[in-house]
Amino acid sequence: SQLVGRTTVCSNPRPSVLDFNLPSITIPNLNEEVTLTRTLTNVGPLNSVYRVAVEPPLGVQVTVTPETLVFDSTTKRVSFKVRVSTTHKINTGYYFGSLTW
Q1: Which of 57, 60, 71, 84 has CB atoms 3.0–4.6 Å from 97's, for a disulfide?
Q2: Phi/psi of residue 17, each to 5°?
Q3: Which region is the signal sequence (predicted)?
């Protein structure tokens, strides 16, 4: 608006923090269930296999699919889904866990 001197409307909706492909996962106001996707690029040995280890916070369930990522000479990038749900009906604080490959 300030650059062109008139009101403008963005045709694209504001992206969700869940859509950013970051190594950390932030879920504001989790009160039911969300599923998000992350994509990894292999920087390790050419033929690498990684298995997920999850330590969810108390009252939070985390499911990762697939549970194993396989990289080889033709597969350099792999996507996985993280499903997060909670039994907390009201979130009044921050909860921390870990997801490690």
Answers
A1: 57
A2: -60, -20
A3: none
Per-residue tokens: 62: 């985390």
Which pairing describes strands 60-65 and 33-41: parallel, antiparallel, or unpaired?
A: unpaired
Question: In terms of residue numbers, what domain contains 51?
Answer: 17-100
Say whether the peptide bond before residue 66 is cis (omega within 30 degrees of 0).
yes
**CA 71/CA 83 separation, integer angstroms:** 23
Instruction: Determine the residue type at 75.
Output: T
The Cα 56–Cα 99 span in angstroms is 8
Region for 92 from its dihedrals, namely left if φ exceeds 0, alpha if ψ lies in -120 to 50, beta otherwise: alpha
Question: Percentage of residues in the chain with pLDDT exceeding 70?
Answer: 98
CATH code, domain carrying 53? 2.60.40.2310
Given a contact cutoff of 8 angstroms between Cβ atoms, the answer to whether 60 and 84 are in contact is: yes
Tens digit of each residue's pLDDT (9 = 90 or more) over 42-61: 999 999 999 999 999 988 99
